[in-house]
Automatic annotation (TrEMBL):
It comes from the Bacteria. PANTHER family: PUTATIVE (AFU_ORTHOLOGUE AFUA_2G14390)-RELATED, TRANS-ACONITATE 2-METHYLTRANSFERASE-RELATED. Gene3D superfamilies: S-adenosyl-L-methionine-dependent methyltransferases (2.20.25.110), Vaccinia Virus protein VP39 (3.40.50.150). One of its GO terms (molecular function) is methyltransferase activity. This is Class I SAM-dependent methyltransferase. It comes from candidate division WOR-3 bacterium. CDD domains: AdoMet_MTases. Residues 45-139 form the Methyltransferase domain. Keywords: Methyltransferase, Transferase.
Length: 249
C-alpha cells in the first residue's frame, strides 16, 4: 500500500469519524493543549496535520497566532471556509509535512490524532527533525499518538460498527516485522458498498519515540495518557508525548 493518505481524508472520512467534529471534544483537547504547553497569548503555534482546522481555529479564538498545515486539499479548503465563518485569523497551508521548511518560527508545534507515522522510518524521523527546525529555542512539541500497549492487548482483527447512516466493516492486521498496523475498511450505505479504503501506521513505543526525538534535537519532557492530563500507563487511551527544543545549542 503506497501513499494511502493522499486521498484518504475526504467527505467519507468525516462520516467514519463524526466524533472528530464534536465541539466539546475539541474544547477539552484545546484546554489540555494550553495546559501542557503552558501557552501565553500571542504564542506562535504550528498545527501540523491540522485537518479541517478544529484545533487551529479554537486556539486562534483564544488569542494565539496559529498556522495550520495539512496535505489534504479537501481539508484545507474546509478549514479556510470555517475560519472565514468564525471571523478569526489562521493561516492554512496545503503542503506535505515531509517537505515543510520552517526555521525557528514557532513557539509550539502540535500533532494531533495520530497524524504522524504514516511514512517510512526514515521519513518519519525526518519529519521530527523538521519539527525541531521549525521550533524556536525552548519551543515545545506535543505529539498525540495511539497507545501501542492498549492496541496489542485489545486489537480485534475483524469487526463492524454503525455511525450515522453508514456501516463500517474493519479488517485489522499487524505486521510484526515492519511493526505497522493496517486497517482495511468497507463503508456501506442502504444502497450497498460506497467505499473501500485502507490506512497503515507505524507502531512506535514511548521509548522509541523518546529516542527519535532526542536524535532529532528534542528533549523528552513527559507522557500523558489522556486529555485530562493523567499519567501514561498500559491502560491509557492515548500516548501524548511532550518534548522541548533545548534553549541553548
Amino acid at each position: 500500500m503506497k501513499d494511502w493518505w493522499k486521498d484518504y481524508f475526504d467527505e467519507i472520512y468525516l462520516r467514519i469519524y463524526p466524533h472528530s467534529s464534536r465541539k466539546e471534544l475539541t474544547l477539552q483537547q484545546v484546554d489540555f493543549i494550553e495546559r501542557a504547553l503552558n501557552l501565553e497569548k500571542g504564542t506562535r503555534i504550528l498545527d501540523l496535520a491540522c485537518g479541517f482546522g478544529r484545533h487551529s481555529i479554537e486556539l486562534a479564538k483564544r488569542g494565539y497566532n496559529v498556522t495550520g498545515l495539512d496535505y489534504s486539499s479537501f481539508f484545507i479548503e474546509l478549514a479556510r471556509e470555517k475560519v472565514e465563518n468564525e471571523k478569526v485569523n489562521v493561516e492554512f497551508i496545503q503542503a506535505d509535512m515531509r517537505t515543510m521548511d520552517f526555521h525557528e518560527e514557532f513557539d509550539a508545534v502540535i500533532n494531533m490524532f495520530t497524524s504522524w507515522g504514516y511514512f517510512s522510518d526514515e521519513e518519519n524521523f525526518d519529519v521530527l527533525k523538521r519539527v525541531c527546525r521549525a521550533l524556536k529555542r525552548g519551543g515545545r512539541f506535543l505529539l498525540d499518538f495511539f497507545n501501542p500497549l492498549m492496541l496489542f492487548k485489545h486489537m480485534v482483527e475483524k469487526s463492524w460498527y454503525s455511525t450515522g447512516d453508514i456501516y463500517v466493516l474493519e479488517d485489522v492486521s499487524l505486521d510484526p516485522i515492519k511493526m505497522r498496523i493496517t486497517n482495511k475498511r468497507i463503508v456501506i450505505e442502504k444502497g450497498g458498498v460506497i467505499d473501500r479504503r485502507e490506512h497503515s501506521v507505524r507502531i512506535y513505543t514511548n521509548q522509541e519515540i523518546t529516542w527519535l526525538l532526542k536524535q532529532a534535537g528534542l528533549q523528552y519532557v513527559t507522557t500523558y495518557g489522556d486529555f485530562d492530563g493523567n499519567e501514561y500507563n498500559e491502560k491509557s487511551r492515548r500516548m501524548i508525548i511532550l518534548a522541548q527544543k533545548l534553549k541553548k545549542k
